Amino acid sequence: MANLDMQKSSSDPAVIRFWQRIPVVIRAIVSGLFVSTIGVMAWLVIVVIIPSPWFIVVMGGVLWLYWKYFSGSWWPKATAEARCNSFREVKLSASIWKWSLVGAALFVVVVQSGFVMTFRLMEFPAETFTSEYNFDAMPLWLAWLTIIMASLVAGICEETGFRGYMQVLLEKRYGPGVGITMVSIMFLIIHLNQAWAPPILFHLFVMSVLLGILAYVSGSLIPSIIGHIGIDIFNFSYWWSDVAGKFEKRTIFETGIDFHFMGWLLIFGISIVLFFWAVRKIGAVCRQT
What we know:
globular
């Protein structure tokens, strides 16, 4: 079991002592990758072996079990406290909920406007982006359900693994700045195998940093999970497939600087400012409560 920090177990103390001798960086990375990967792999297996649309229902149940277990429920009791701490807080006040939702929504706007700006500055590699995802054989309603479930899986499992089990350990050992940076480097590395990754490597790093800030300041994974789910719904439906339409704008080097480019540039700048304003509001509410 990953993340056995500061636990005592009469059943196998040797394993725990061995785990605690391993450097914090390695323990954090192993814990985070294990927790993230096990959820994503469950989704990939279920999609293959369960016929549609039942794989949606089955994965919904698996996600509920995943959430309960990695937030600290059930056996073994010896690891429950560590699992609970790594999952961060799940009970938020109304004020933190409000500002966390605002922060998550602004995160989505920042990233999506960043994508638009990028692909007005360079040609959008449509074939590369859509090569791994094909919803053409599905009815539209099933395609949307699949996209939403895939986004839920990525949002919940990757945030639990990276911003939870990995980042919490690194925050405690090295502080939030170093912790968030190290997690973001790992988040970038783990996505290098994706065909769409090369044009947006910087975006992936910045996305992880912003999600890490949301998780740290709010003390909860819920805001970063919501933001991650929102991003992936857009990505799966628009950038990585044609379910929600196609991006067909040419670069400004062909069209010149136009109102579309200037409008999205303005949205990008304002959303960044508002995101950090929302983060300050979350921090202020947390300090008061």
